[in-house]
Amino acid sequence: MTAPFRTPIVAGNWKMNLDHAKGVALAAAVAGRRADAAGVELVLCPPSVYLVPVVAATNAAGGDVAVGAQNAHDKESGAYTGELSPQMLTDVGCRYVILGHSERRTLFGETDAAVNAKAKAALAAGLTPIVCVGETLEEREAGRTDAVVTAQIQGSLAGLGPDGLARTVIAYEPVWAIGTGRVATPEQAQEVHALIRSLLPALSSAEVAAKVRIQYGGSVKPDNAAHLAACPDIDGALVGGASLKADDFLAIAAAFSTGGCC
Ligand code: PEP
User: Is the pTM of this model over 0.85?
Assistant: First the structure.
C-alpha cells in the first residue's frame, strides 16, 4: 500500500509579539515569497488585534497564505467579555485557529474538555482547528509521555466525528521544547507522532487517521527543520520564535516543501 499524501502545513504562532506595522510587513514578506515553499500550506497566526490587516496583506499578495487566530471561544456570541467567537474569526477572513496551546493550558487553565468544546465550535464555524498537545519535561522524565499525550488526544478530539477529525490539524508540541531552543530529536518526535496517528482510527476511521496532518512544534529552526520534515508522520511545523522572521519561517517551510533530508 502506498503512503497517503498529506499536504504539509507550516504555521507561524506570533504569540503576543510585533506591532501593526511589523506584523503587516512580515505578512507581506512571507506572502510575497510564498513560492519559496511551493506545495506547503502556510498559515500566519498574529495577535487577534492584527488579524484584519494581516488578512488584507496576505489577500493583497494573492491570498495563498492563510491566516489563523491563536485562540477562540466556544460560543457564537454573548456576554463573554474579552473573547472572540469562531464566527467572528471567519467573518474577518481567518481560516485557522490554534487551540489548546500549552501556554493557554498552563497560563489560562484550559482543560482538554475546554479545548474539545472549542474545537467543535471552530469546526462548526468553518475554521480549521490546530489542536496542540504535548508533555512537560517532568512528565517525559517520569516515562509518562505516551499516557499524557493519549489522554490529551482522546479528551481534546472526542466526538469530532470522521468529518471533523479529517478537517483538524494536530500539533505535537513537547512543552520542554517550546521557546527553549531544545528541540525534540526527529526520533523522539516521530515516535509520538506515530503514537498520535495510532490513536486516531478509534476516533474516526483508518482512512481518516492516515489523512490527518500532525505538525511538530518546539524550537523548530531552519537548521533542524529538514530532519524533522523527513520523518514519515511529521506533516509540518507549528513555529513560534522563528516565525517572526520571514527568512527563517520560509526556510522552515521550504524544508517541508522538499520533504526534508536525513
Ligand atoms: C510555539 O509557541 O508553538 C512554539 C513552538 O514556539 P517555539 O517555536 O518558539 O518553540
Answer: yes
